[in-house]
């Protein structure tokens, strides 16, 4: 069959029809000037694709790496969600009338120490709950949850005395009830009388805390009481000098950290064979990832001794917050769970403010504006950052603006000295990480959270640095976009009782 060619040298319309049948991608045209030749392969029509769904407003401007970071932050915060105190397992201590310490069945020497050494007359709610529960259940494990911070009292007068008093009372009763046969006239040193259950390197009670500064504070309170009830209270940390000399006499109450206790057991032959009770203060920290291994090793050591003695060593756990991590770790123990109405509750004398950092402002501008309104001649201000790099940047910025500022840029090494310097008259502002969120009994009027924390627990401990001793306090938080979820949960709670979930 012949195919016609036009006078211009192009295939005729018949050829176009043939091409259309054989090659569907090419459309025939009668006008040669509108035709475009396929040089190698005939053009194929692309199949119609479904239109892509438009990204949501949130996804359209948030990079994938930031969304991933938000997911990780959420997972981290959920691990530390607070357990509700409405759980039926909690024995909630309802407010009762003020009880004088003289109304409890406490040793006379201990009562004298409370009155003359510490200057206290009435017990707080948590102290009433602890003393009564230990006296009624001397062999049971106890978990106590109560508000962070010290209200209307002084150092160590809240949860600290809540466990020190009943434990020291137990030890005094053990001494008074001991038969004469257990009295040894000359024990090693040839000078002092003692009892057979007071042995070298065998503490009769152990108190564990997560930091050196807390060990020093609790030891200070214990020593005040020990002067009246003639007991030996010893605080040992990794910085304590002359440890061997401290171990040359029997110890009634040993106050230390989990790491240091394991070191004493390994290097100085210390044992818990005479221990009547172990206290885990700041239990939410001792049972989290920071100290969990050391804490469980001590509990394992306790269990081995119990098998030999055929007698249990009761535990007492004290905490200002009760996160899921602590709940999961303590399910294995038979516990009496006590809580006061103040658990997970901020003080009524604490004012909380939340400031959003937007495009028109910066954290530094908000900081300057906040300080202009906050700084007085006597008010101490504590600024919290999440990282040491941020501490340095805030310190440099405030120094350039001629503010009297001080920073804590180390770990626990010089914390005690840092707090002393902060108490000096000329220093009004301190910048620190969460290392300063616990163990400070200073009169701080204003806490500024420059970088918002990732969990409710961290927020609670930061906020707990102010509104202490019955005085009013203020917390001002700067919020970025990633902080809104946690902050909104706190604000919805009215700032009084922190939500158990976010």
UniProtKB/TrEMBL annotation:
Gene3D superfamilies in the record: P-loop containing nucleotide triphosphate hydrolases (3.40.50.300)
Intervals of motif Q motif: 99-128
Chain ranges of the DEAD-box RNA helicase Q domain: 99-128
Span of domain Helicase C-terminal: 370-502
Pfam families according to UniProt: DEAD, Helicase_C
Record-level Gene Ontology MF annotations: ATP binding; hydrolase activity; nucleic acid binding; RNA helicase activity
Protein keywords: ATP-binding, Helicase, Hydrolase, Nucleotide-binding
Location of the region described as Disordered in the Swiss-Prot/TrEMBL record: 32-62
SUPFAM superfamilies hit by this protein: P-loop containing nucleoside triphosphate hydrolases
Domain Helicase ATP-binding: 140-340
Residue ranges with Basic residues bias: 43-55
Top-level taxon of the source organism: Eukaryota
Signal peptide region: none
PANTHER family: DEAD-BOX ATP-DEPENDENT RNA HELICASE 50
Stated name of the protein: RNA helicase
